[in-house]
Amino acid sequence: MKKILMSFALMLACAASMSAQKFVLVDMEYILKNIPAYERANEQLNQVSKKWQAEVEALNSEAQTLYKNYQSEAVFLSEEEKGRREEAIVAKEKEASELKRKYFSAEGELFKKRESLMAPIQDEIYNAVKDICDQKGYSLVLDRASDAGIIYASPKIDISNEVLLKLGYAN
Q1: Is the dihedral of CA 126, 132, 134, 136 positive or negative?
Q2: Number of domains in the chain
Q3: Is there a domain that residue 37 lies in?
Q4: Average pLDDT of span 8-34
Q5: Model-level pTM?
Q6: Is residue 1 part of a domain?
Q7: Rounded to 10 degrees, what is the CA torsion of 110, 111, 117, 122?
Q8: Domain range for residue 143?
Q9: Which pLDDT belongs to residue 151?
Q10: pLDDT in tens, 6-16
Q11: Is residue 4 part of a domain?
């Protein structure tokens, strides 16, 4: 019986402390869609990505051409020439693989470019959210756009438009 009473008292204490907190939501997707600099940065990233992907595909295509030529001429080649051709094919495939890693890996050029373009925008949003929270006494901000398991949230606690207004993008 004491355990049940103690558990109940603990739950009441937690509920009381949580009711004193102010929670709000933001929708980062909505905010980002309404910031022109974000759209420009995304377009720039897409263009760079396509350019780099074309470079990688060109090297892969060269490797395939070398391999097809090797296959069609293999019966006429000496062992020494076969070895040189095989090495050339492997080298071209390796070059394509290294270029792909350089551009598209987790520490690659595309990641660095994305960081350099997006970090200032994210910092600006963070500072705007922080300012609003400091002014209005909010304790916790959740992102409605992330899959955080929010099933329902009242639109009254969504401050996305306030954030946009603070950033100078009235909506």
Answers
A1: negative
A2: 1
A3: yes
A4: 69
A5: 0.70
A6: no
A7: 150
A8: 16-167
A9: 61
A10: 444 445 444 54
A11: no
